[in-house]
Amino acid sequence: MEEQEVVDKGDGEDNSELPKAWVEAFLQYEEHITSVLDEAKREKLNDNHDKSRELLLNLGSNLPEAFRAVIYSVNLNEDFLDDVEEQMDSETREGLESLNSEYSILQDESLIVRYLVGSPRENVPTRGTLSIDFKYSENMPFIDYTLQSGDVELLDIQAEPSVFIHLSHLALDAAVTALEDAAEYNHQIDEEEMAEVVSTYQSLQSEMEEANELIENITSEMDLEPEDAESETTEGDPENPESEQ
Questions:
Q1: What residues does each domain of the chain span?
Q2: Which of 25, 60, 109, 177 can bridge 67 by disulfide, Cβ–Cβ 3.0-4.6 Å?
Q3: pTM of the model as a whole
Q4: Among the residues of the chain, which ranges form H helices?
């Protein structure tokens, strides 16, 4: 069983001057912040997840810049820590890394709160758990995937690869539609969000190249062209209602 991080940890941050400003804000209120983190940790250990998240949300709302330093430190974001060492010093980096040792239990909650500060978000995914099997009676690879937001289970899907590819297509289509609407109405997109979109999309493109090669190898061994495979999986497929229209 494989555990996967879902929400970004701040990789691809566009403005390299921000880490120093965030750390300076953290150091200014360090005593207060660590006191809140201690309390949030206690609540988390006592299974009071809502209270733990509430404490972090208040902290993030009141000290947003300092809270950024907390998020990236607790989650050991290497890009952030490298910037801190370059802009400040190695001692400051080590001090921030110690937040991970002390408050690693708050990793998921801190990532969720990052998206709750400002405009509310609901059920932000933080990690997924993947288990893969093969159904010999059906000649079918089989996937069990659980998606969580902190300690809350959002969904548990048990299905074959084609279903997950359909879901990926729907998710990508939703993201592209949102970006198209923003561009059409000349809405200015947050720089950090756009940097993350670019970074994630580039990673997706790389993975798609590997997937294309894998699919071509499998279909060639089956004497099956990719186009033929597509028609077999979509024509009359109950999981693809559009194919019947």
A1: 9-116, 161-244
A2: 60
A3: 0.58
A4: 18-28, 30-45, 49-62, 64-74, 78-87, 90-103, 107-116, 161-184, 191-221, 226-234
